[in-house]
């Protein structure tokens, strides 16, 4: 756990914010590298990224604050301290998706191709964000006896939740998964039919997130006192992703050689 990356007097750079910024920069670069597969101009790619970023941060923060509202009852301004962690991916994904759909409709872009292009960018950005979570000490795991279990310092939220126990570094599990999936999506967006990359992203993220939640020690259970909010959403997007995969595989012709 290393929440403060650098300090200069009273000014400090938090690890979570730095990793989130790195993820955004890498994601922007990847969208621009692959933008031709969505027939996006450089300006359209930049504008779509700005729209997705703003909507994603707002949506992710809203979901987190609603889920952990008790933390902010007496700390209203803390709601806006996103640099300290506290973002729920699904919230950001859903609002960013809605914002991108509106932007693509206005700009006459193919939302399916745009989401294909965004898949590897989201994977790499998410991986960086999870490393930030690990350094920040949020999104911690359940107790484990495995030798790679992580012990958090006294007074930290994970240590208060599980005093004296080693926990699964579930943040790093998810970061590793997303790094590996990034290479898959990067290949798919260039070599498969329209929609396949997007559908693969939905399916695989839903599956891995559902499994990761089994090792999470910080999330409340909301359905039958067993499933977490992320697992409930995963149960919805996994079949949706599979259905889209089958649809695009059957109905789309391979057309990846697109001009700038």
Automatic annotation (TrEMBL):
Bilayer topology reads: Multi-pass membrane protein
Its EC number(s): 2.5.1.145
Q: Does the keyword Lipoprotein apply?
A: yes
**Pathway assignment:** Protein modification; lipoprotein biosynthesis (diacylglyceryl transfer)
Q: Which is a Gene Ontology cellular component entry for this protein? A: plasma membrane
Q: What is the predominant subcellular site recorded for this chain?
A: membrane
List the GO molecular function terms. Answer: phosphatidylglycerol-prolipoprotein diacylglyceryl transferase activity
List, alphabetically, the Pfam families matched: LGT
List where in the cell it is found.
Answer: Cell membrane
Q: Where does a 1,2-diacyl-sn-glycero-3-phospho-(1'-sn-glycerol) bind?
A: 130
Where are the membrane-spanning stretches?
15-33, 45-66, 86-104, 195-211, 231-248
State if Transmembrane helix is listed as a keyword: yes
Q: Which UniProt keywords apply?
A: Cell membrane, Lipoprotein, Membrane, Transferase, Transmembrane, Transmembrane helix
> Which biological process annotations from GO are given for this protein?
lipoprotein biosynthetic process
User: Which family, according to the similarity comment?
Assistant: Belongs to the Lgt family.
Q: What does this protein do?
A: Catalyzes the transfer of the diacylglyceryl group from phosphatidylglycerol to the sulfhydryl group of the N-terminal cysteine of a prolipoprotein, the first step in the formation of mature lipoproteins.
Protein name in the entry: Phosphatidylglycerol--prolipoprotein diacylglyceryl transferase
Organism expressing this protein natively: Victivallis lenta
Gene name per UniProt: lgt
């Amino acid at each position: 756990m290393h929440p403060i990356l650098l300090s200069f007097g009273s000014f400090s750079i938090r690890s979570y914010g730095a990793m989130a910024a790195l993820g955004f920069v890498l994601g922007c670069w990847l969208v621009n590298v692959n933008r031709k597969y969505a027939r996006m101009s450089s300006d359209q790619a930049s504008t779509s990224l700005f729209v997705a970023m703003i909507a994603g941060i707002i949506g992710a923060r809203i979901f987190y604050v609603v889920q952990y509202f008790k933390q902010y009852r007496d700390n209203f301004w803390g709601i806006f301290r996103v640099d300290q962690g506290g973002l729920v991916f699904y919230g950001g994904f859903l609002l960013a998706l809605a914002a991108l759909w509106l932007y693509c409709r206005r700009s006459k872009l193919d939302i399916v191709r745009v989401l294909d292009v965004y898949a590897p960018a989201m994977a790499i950005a998410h991986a960086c964000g999870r490393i930030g979570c690990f350094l920040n000490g949020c999104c911690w795991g359940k107790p484990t006896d495995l030798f790679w279990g992580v012990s958090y310092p006294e007074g930290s939220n994970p240590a208060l939740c599980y005093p004296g126990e080693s926990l699964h570094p579930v943040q790093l599990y998810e970061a590793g998964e997303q790094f590996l999936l990034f290479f898959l999506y990067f290949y798919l967006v260039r070599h498969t039919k329209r929609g396949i990359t997007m559908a693969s992203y939905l399916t695989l993220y839903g599956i891995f997130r559902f499994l990761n939640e089994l090792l999470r020690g910080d999330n409340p259970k909301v359905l039958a006192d067993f499933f977490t909010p992320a697992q409930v959403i995963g149960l919805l997007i996994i079949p949706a992703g599979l259905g889209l995969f089958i649809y695009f595989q059957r109905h789309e012709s391979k057309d990846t050689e697109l001009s700038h």
